[in-house]
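Hi C.,

You asked whether I'd gotten around to modeling the 329-residue construct. I have! Everything is below, sequence then structure, no commentary in between.
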Amino acid sequence: MRHVIALDVGGTGMKAALAEASAVPPGGGPAERPTLLYQARRATGRERGPDAVVETILDFAAELRAYGIEHFGEPAAAAGVAVPGIVDAERGIAAYAANLGWRDVPLRDLLAERLGGVPVALGHDVRTGGLAEGRIGAGQGADRYLFVALGTGIAGAIGIGGRVEAGAHGFAGEIGHIVVRPGGAACPCGQHGCLERYASAAAVSEAWAAASGDPAADAASCAEATRSGDPRARAVWQDAVDALADGLVTALTLLDPRTLIIGGGLAEAGETLFVPLRDAVRRRVTFQKLPALVPAALGDTAGCLGAGLLARDLLTATSTTPTTPEVTT
């Protein structure tokens, strides 16, 4: 059975799958969610250093290839890999990842060699997840959308016509570093007042721990306390919602998306987040068109599914052109 390898590399763990390789549903129409034939997870093992992480990724990919040969009668036809940090998708290089400690790793070429020369697509983790949300998730059918992941930090993916825009230098979508509070809290990026210092899950956890006096308090417990009516939690939560709304309105003013998709850990608060956020965004728009503001649909499978879509795109490209395709994520 023809299939592809999909691999989503995180700071602590890796999610992988073998997915069916059909890129176009019978009779045409919108993209179908890839059928996952096999799924597996591994620890990233970043405590062993960047070289060991790279070798772990390569070994994991080789295991997936071997599984495909044994169980489906042939090796994977292509592979898609999503990684964190700064990614040069065009050249296939994992340029920098602070949480994994690597710099300028030619990951696409290393994987292609380990996988017997099959085509490999390398993508940024959030943009790859955003690709999946746009094609087969909450943004399906929208020609232009913005996907925003609220996790330890905040990052985004700009979807246009079925693909995700990486930008001239691979930095498109870094909404977490829009300054929403000039002169505010210092950010590791070197600026002050960045959105992710106020509206990420990490920022909410920090603010709620200080307000509650409980060092173990986190964003999930802040959301629960907000639902229970705790005035301290409500104040912390509203501060985060207001900062997020400021950042989102800046983004929608520039991008004019049809759909605004919110994912990541903080979005798991559900309507505790979306009710006040929709209201805050609505109050801030003037001439702008208000996009649909919806929760992400794919959860923590988005990166892996997106990697599978990248791999399937390679097969589509190689079947229609004799040249090596340029991979844009």
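If it helps when you're writing up: DSSP finds nine helices and 13 strands in the chain.

Thanks,
B.
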